[in-house]
Design a protein that fits this description.
CATH class of the largest domain: Mainly Beta
Radius of gyration: 24 Å
Mean pLDDT: 86
Number of helices: 6
Strand content: 15-25%
CATH architecture of the largest domain: Beta Barrel
Low-confidence stretches: 250-272
CATH superfamily of the largest domain: Sortase
Number of strands: 10
Length: 345
């Protein structure tokens, strides 16, 4: 009897360990698939808005996203920022432009308007309430370091003078990474600061405020990797004259104090609590537990059926093969909802 109890406990622990490892794998690599799918959709959407078509005259929606991406950057780079009219601020979650950081291998990633968790699952997001990239003032863009494609994974490798290139509807803008402020350099270099970056607490939103006499771009992400304890900050200065800014900083068809914005964790002001940017959605816990319960029920049923087969001296392994196949979908959806429930990094 004791042996059976210990055996059951051992199998339970093994099962729990395997599920935990699979969830870690999902967060590191599975979420990347989600981000890549969103990036393809965003690229096609941006291409369609620019009238980008294939050589055969086909619609951008039917073309290879990599081809569309190249055509987008070529078309935007040909725009003269000085002559470009003010750009309309996109709705939250819509594509706003492209960002490249050659030093860390970030190649033409589409960034969206908004920094709510749902926005950052698609790619880097522009902080509403800060200037558009390429405009006067301090524009700000947030991105993940560990999950959802981890666009800012190697942001701590940036050095003074490295290029950050942004393409918007007003043209191509090049920023140069600035030295980290002397008053932000506490402790050993490489810990919470480097020559081209520094770390702050999540509530230190002063980094989003304008920098005197400079037109800048600020990149933010969680720090260190796989943790949300701090925020890593990179300031970069625009090397040319800024483009004309829009007359409003509130996206069309949205409002800074709408209930929808609150529900979706929209950041409509650079003074909002930065912890909201990575907070999970409590409503996602219930579906995660339900899908998890389905997985557990399937495995308990298969174990009971396999035990019955063994009593009759029949092979039980086909039962486990069928169970593995049948639990893939509910386990995937369990991971999807659990990831949305947990903070993101």
């Amino acid at each position: 009897m004791i042996n059976r109890i210990l055996g059951g406990l051992g199998r339970t622990l093994i099962f729990a360990g395997v599920v935990l490892l699979l969830f870690v794998a999902y967060q590191l690599w599975g979420t990347k698939l989600d981000e890549e799918s969103h990036q393809e959709d965003l690229t096609r959407s941006l291409g369609a808005s620019l009238g980008v078509t294939s050589d055969s005259g086909g619609d951008a929606a039917d073309e290879d996203p990599a081809v569309i991406d190249k055509e987008i950057t070529t078309k935007l780079a040909a725009i003269d920022p000085v002559k470009a009219p003010p750009a309309e601020i996109p709705k939250e979650g819509d594509p706003e432009g492209k960002i490249e950081i050659p030093k860390i291998g970030l190649r033409s990633k589409t960034f969206v308007e908004g920094v709510a968790k749902a926005d950052l699952r698609k790619g880097p997001g522009h902080y509403p309430g800060t200037p558009l990239p390429g405009n006067a003032g301090n524009a700000a863009i947030a991105g993940h370091r560990s999950t959802y494609g981890a666009p800012f994974n190697r942001i701590d490798e940036l050095q003074v003078g490295d290029d950050i290139i942004v393409y918007t509807l007003q043209g191509k803008f090049t920023y140069k990474v600035m030295p980290s402020p002397e008053d932000r350099r506490s402790g050993k270099e490489g810990g919470n600061w480097g020559q081209g970056w520094f770390a702050v607490t999540p509530n230190d939103v002063s980094v989003l405020l304008p920098i005197a006499d400079k037109n800048t771009l600020t990149l933010t992400a969680c720090h260190p990797k796989y943790s949300a304890k701090l925020r890593i900050i990179v300031h970069a200065e625009l090397v040319a004259e800024p483009a004309t800014a829009p007359t409003t900083t509130v996206p069309p068809e949205t409002s800074a104090d709408s209930s929808d914005a609150e529900d979706s964790e929209t950041v409509t002001s650079p003074t909002q609590d930065a912890e909201d940017l990575i907070a999970g959605d409590p409503k996602e816990l219930t579906p995660a537990l339900l899908f998890g319960a389905v997985v557990i029920a399937l495995w308990l049923g298969s174990m009971a059926f396999a035990a019955w087969l063994r009593k009759g001296a029949r092979r039980a392994w086909p039962v486990y093969v069928v169970t593995v196949a049948s639990t893939v979908a509910p386990l995937w959806f369990c991971f999807v909802h659990m990831d949305r429930f947990l903070p993101s990094y």
